[in-house]
Specification:
It contains 13 helices and three strands; from the N terminus they run αααααααβββαααααα. It is mainly alpha-helical. The chain has a three-stranded antiparallel sheet, with no helix packed on it. Helix 3 packs antiparallel against helix 4. The model has no long low-confidence stretch (mean pLDDT about 85).
Length: about 300
């Protein structure tokens, strides 16, 4: 193992143990840094001290153009890889492996701002209604799950990660376990609260397995914790039954939650807290949606908006 590979292994260990990154995030860092190491080794660079700023810039260029083993990456994927590389070099500087951060001046490519896909309210309501159409124990769970996703803006991992002790039906709150182990308490709206109460107090009891009692709020048919994949399937099937043609994912409900709040006059910093974003900048992309809506209303309502 080269000096460079050892340093990367130490950095990944640091990310996993000390920063508590999720399995998915760790997988992304590992893939990006493995590609970075292979790129440097192919250039004859096998120590961290030998890496120059030109090497980092060349790696970024290689990401954007691709090669015989890799497809060209778009701005967002390239930016993610550069963030991993910059984090690695900062780590090496802190650990005194090197005395200069050669990646400091290399800026990740800036992805074009894209409007998140949000569903209109009537489509969200149709999906929620469709989830409980069959009227079975699992339908009660499905309705509660989707009401929670839309009513709290929770990520799919946060929703399926909920334990019974994390919800307070009296106070109308839920404790969500966010990225990096960060927790936040969010209000649960009346519709989601009603669906949760109906499910927890009646239907969930029918799903609990005596052999392997799970603390999870959302259970599968065998009494274990509902997986992210199964929760995704619940939404897709409900959207299909509701006649919603566009592609719908759990993140679609999260986008819709944020957009509808801002359309209703919520402050962007409040939405930031509810979504669990570390920076308000991440949340501000949703304001593009509301500005677009304002522009549309202005164009049709103001007497001098059109020539």
């Amino acid at each position: 193992m080269s000096d460079l590979e050892r340093a990367v292994a130490d950095y990944l260990s640091h990310l996993g143990v000390e920063r508590g990154l999720s399995t998915n995030t760790m997988g992304s860092y590992r893939r990006d840094l493995r590609r970075y190491v292979a790129f440097l080794l192919a250039r004859g660079t096998d120590t961290v001290a030998a890496v120059q700023e030109a090497d980092v810039l060349a790696f970024l260029a290689a990401l954007r153009t691709g090669d015989e083993d890799h497809q060209a990456l778009g701005p967002a994927s390239s930016a993610r890889a550069v963030v991993a590389v910059r984090g690695f070099h900062r780590f090496c500087l802190r650990e005194q492996i090197v005395d200069t951060d050669v990646s400091a001046a290399v800026k990740p490519p800036r992805p074009a701002a894209r409007l998140p896909k949000a569903l209109p309210l009537h489509q969200v309501e149709s999906i929620l209604e469709a989830a409980s159409a069959p009227g079975t124990v699992l339908a009660s769970r499905d309705r509660a799950l989707l009401e929670v996703l839309y009513g709290t803006g929770a990520r799919i991992s946060e929703a399926v990660g909920l334990d019974i002790d994390d919800i307070d039906l009296q106070e109308g709150t839920a404790l969500l376990q966010g990225k990096g182990g960060k927790q936040r308490v969010v209000p649960v709206g009346s519709y989601a609260l009603e669906a949760l109460a109906d499910y927890v107090q009646v239907s969930r009891r029918a799903l609990v397995s005596a052999q392997a009692a799970s603390p999870a709020v959302f259970l599968n048919a065998r009494g274990g914790r509902l997986s992210r994949q199964s929760a995704w399937t619940v939404l897709v099937k409900a959207a299909r039954r509701a006649g919603v043609d566009q592609e719908v994912s759990p993140h679609t409900l999260r986008h819709s939650f944020a957009t509808h709040l801002l359309d209703g006059g919520a402050d962007v910093r409040v939405v930031q807290e509810l979504l669990g974003h570390a920076s308000v900048t991440t949340t501000q992309i949703y304001t593009l949606v509301t500005v677009d809506k304002l522009r549309e209303i202005y164009a049709t309502a103001h007497p001098r908006a059109r020539g």
